[in-house]
Specification:
Arginase, Chain A, 16% strand, eight-stranded parallel beta sheet
């Protein structure tokens, strides 16, 4: 039986984390894909609080001249962080993006809330990329490649991103589905306790064994679990609406199995839906798939299986 949640849908129409346009249409695409009624049919109370707008940012200048829209990104992070903190106290927030810079704000806000109520926060990062650049190491200058480094408290953001209210300990982060990580990110990740599972690990061990290890850790700590799902975690053959597509991603069944396991665990407390670019979609198929995956996370299944303790 599905536990009824008070789901808070938050539109995050940010596309300033990268140069390719289209992600600002993401929240509208989810609404068009009937995400509200899909979740209501599962018995949840669903409130759509509308779209976030960026806050005013200070004037910023960084030594890395390639950084794209740094001031705009600062304003987005500040506004998203504030909203995420507020919505965590009201229910189960689902953040409809928007490119993945949104996670710099969503996770920061949720970490702030978790610190206030004295519970540890864990993050499951479902993405082909690690997004672990700092402002000095990114060559492209696309800031959607920086959120994990920022919210895990890595150096290099002071004075250029909003002050971090609470960092997520790297040991509390699990990246699943990696298949495109830059050299600078690899070197930085080696110095952390972040759990890293690339697609080879999934091929060898399967998503069940890998995800179960992490969920046991979350359960033991009695923590919050934030899931950040990037469209490019999925294979582009089933999810073409993303500007950072890399072949060899998660299959339809692997993705649904992960969501079903997350639901069965009862541990998930918030969700990002990131990097949907409707301009690149095929008749809304990616928006529909991401909505279906959200439904699986929130309790949709074919048969109600008994969950063994």
């Amino acid at each position: 039986m599905v536990k009824s949640e008070n789901i808070r849908l938050v539109g995050v129409p940010v596309q300033d984390g990268a140069r390719r346009l289209g992600c600002e249409m993401g929240p509208s695409a989810y609404r068009t894909a009937a995400i509200v009624s899909v979740l209501q049919e599962l018995g949840h109370k669903v409130s759509d609080i509308g779209d976030i707008a960026p806050a005013k940012a200070p004037r910023l200048r960084h030594a890395n001249s390639s950084l794209y829209r740094l001031e705009k990104v600062y304003g987005w992070i500040a506004a998203i962080e504030k909203t995420a903190y507020e919505q965590m106290g009201k229910g189960f927030p689902v953040f409809m993006g928007g490119d993945h810079i949104m996670a710099a704000g969503t996770v920061a806000g949720i970490a702030h809330y978790a610190a206030r109520v004295k519970k540890p926060l864990f993050v499951l990062w479902l993405d082909t990329h690690s997004d672990f650049h700092n402002l000095a190491t990114t060559i492209s200058g696309n800031l959607h490649g920086t959120p994990v480094a920022y919210f895990s408290g890595q150096p290099g953001f002071e004075g250029f991103y909003p002050p971090l209210p609470a960092a997520v300990p790297p040991a509390n982060i699990c990246m699943l589905g990696l298949r495109s990580v830059d050299a600078a990110e690899r070197q930085a990740l080696k110095k952390t306790e972040i759990t890293l599972y690339d697609m080879r690990a999934i091929d060898e061990y399967g998503v069940v064994a890998l995800l179960r290890r992490f969920l046991e850790k979350v359960k033991k700590a009695e923590g919050f679990l934030h899931v950040s799902l990037d469209v490019d975690f999925l294979d582009p053959a089933i999810a073409p609406a993303v500007g950072t597509a890399v072949t060899g991603g998660a299959t339809y069944r692997e993705a649904h199995l992960i969501m079903e396991m997350l639901h069965d665990s009862g541990l998930t407390s918030s969700l990002d839906l990131a990097e949907l670019n409707p301009f690149l979609d095929e008749r809304g198929r990616t928006a529909k798939l991401m909505t279906e995956l959200t439904a699986s996370l929130m309790g949709r299944n074919i048969i109600d299986y008994p969950i063994k303790a």
